[in-house]
Design brief:
The complex is a heterodimer of chains A (about 325) and B (about 290).
Chain A (H helix, E strand, L loop, with lengths): L3 H15 L1 H4 L4 H27 L6 H18 L4 H22 L5 H21 L15 E3 L4 E3 L2 H24 L1 H11 L1 H6 L4 H27 L9 H13 L7 H15 L4 H18 L3 H21 L9
Antiparallel strand pairs in A: 1-2
Helix pairs in contact in A: 3-7, 3-10, 3-11, 3-12, 4-5, 4-10, 5-10, 7-10, 8-10, 11-12, 11-13
Chain B lengths: L1 H30 L6 H18 L4 H28 L3 H23 L14 E4 L2 E4 H23 L1 H11 L1 H6 L4 H23 L11 H13 L5 H21 L5 H15 L12
Antiparallel strand pairs in B: 1-2
Helix pairs in contact in B: 1-5, 1-8, 1-9, 1-10, 2-3, 2-4, 2-8, 2-9, 3-4, 3-8, 5-6, 9-10, 9-11, 10-11
Chain lengths: ~325, ~290
Amino acid sequence: MPTPLRLLLIAGVAVAGLFLPALAGGSPAIYSAAVLIAIFAVMSYGLDTIVSDLGEVSLAHTVFFGIGAYVTALLSVRLDLGPIATLLGTIVAALIAAGVLGLITLRLREFVFSLVTYAVAVVAITVASSWSFIGGSDGLRGIPPFELPLIGFTAKDDAALWPVAYVLLLATLYLMHAFRRSRLGHAAIMVHLNPRLATMSGIAPQRTRLQIFLLSAPITAAAGWLYAYQRAFVSADVLETYFLILMLTAVVLVGRRRLLAPLIGVIIIQVQEKFFPFGGYVDKIILGSILILVLAYLPNGLAGLIAPLVAAGRRAVARKAAPSPSNTEA
Amino acid sequence: MNLAQQLLNGIVLGHAYALLAIGWTVLLGVARLVNFGHGQMYMLGAFVTWYAGARLGMPYLAAGAMAITAGMVIGYIMQRIMLRLTLKQDLVTIMIVTLGFGYVLQGAAGLVFGSTGQILETPLSRIDIYWGDLWFTWQDIAIIVVAMLFFAALKYVIEHTGVGRIARMVAEDPALALLSGINVKRVYLGVFAFEGAAVALAAVMVAPRTPILTSMGFDEVIITFAVVVLGGIGSIAGSYFAGLALGLFTAFFGAFVAPAYTTAAAFAVLIAVLAIRPRGFAAAPGSR
């Protein structure tokens, strides 16, 4: 249970986080990396609910990301709508897409589910790069800056966009936290680990799956929404495999079902790519290799690697503090 | 006449698809495994063939043999790394790992072969044949012949030889196979090496038909998936006919409806089939 002190501490850390890029030097490169980290982390949290909680692998989440970016671009370029309206449009479009995809894949499991979602992603790329209504291979240009006239806010660069990205990230973290404590969160885990028991306890597995899908898609799409403003243009490359591999690696790298894990995963990957790059091809090899090695050799992620060390450290400290074997720590 | 030309294109394309899918058919049918790096392995097979031929000056057959060997080695290494997951039958994780392998292969190929597209020319693809109004190359004939021979040989090996019996047994019940003294690990490694070799063979034969890029490979996975599922998972004869059917469908759809949306259309067919018989997937592993 969150005590007032704990709440205060969390609030303090949350507020302090806002100033992290400034503390790290505050250069445009830092702010740009920070905004992208926030966007990609939000994108990954959408997938996290499917992978960690539902135990399936959706490879169609780049499509939700793309839907967010494209809907935002279309609404703002063609209809001159502001960020609030484009966000609403993004959420509605993501819900519709997730509903359709969810219904199609409702009865599919494991690799068939993944393959169908992968096929959706591949088809989405071909459609996005050939359908002229959404810009075809040229994409959509001229997305206006992120502007909220009501409070006189305009974000012309990444430094100004950072608070927006940060708020989106915090909102997502809160949503994830609330989801894992909710009935739906518990139902998802039960469907994942023991479908029969879930059915016996009155949980409809297929309904749960659909609900998780409907929760997950708008989160990833919201990341696409902000990405459109950050880049000021959208083209079929928002659907690239890079985003999929990035999401998957971020979700599994640190450990599953830990609130901050995808965020930390994205930070590790993005810091390497933005500040210690080895060129596009080598970065690809690095990212792919991390994904392979973690899954093949670290089933519990980095946390699984660190946890025994931490425990050993604690034991050592405890031994030093109380040399008698009768200490109560276990 | 256009219709006859499309029919011919469809038949060639169909055999190309069948050839592309054969590794997966065995992988899924025998080992109940999947490989999302399949498309990138196809890409790599094409580039190794191209490199050996155009840069090292090797003849087509030797270049092809080199590509197939490379495919086999890569397949073996992949399975070696994933073996623990395979023995646990942790399919979800295996999928992501193979996806990661595909991504690594793509990066490595870009690093070695560059980002420019190449044309893989073979002695057979250079000779055009005109027959009435019809146009094709010797490469097209070779694709059809190789695909037919490969499928026939595979069907024979799986159904009538000791190797095939072992593979079928592992597919049926890995635990029981282990108890009866079969080295299950070796079967899994062998199946994945076969998958790598088979997709490389497909690349050697089929890749000369189109320009090759290190970023290709996605369409190939989807086509493969469609062929394997439409044919009934693990069924060798089924895959052959499904490949043929899909090739004809793609050729006619591309020629008469919209070439840009052929992958989307093939996928739509697949979804329709899935909607009609989703239970088809629940078929017992190894059942034919």
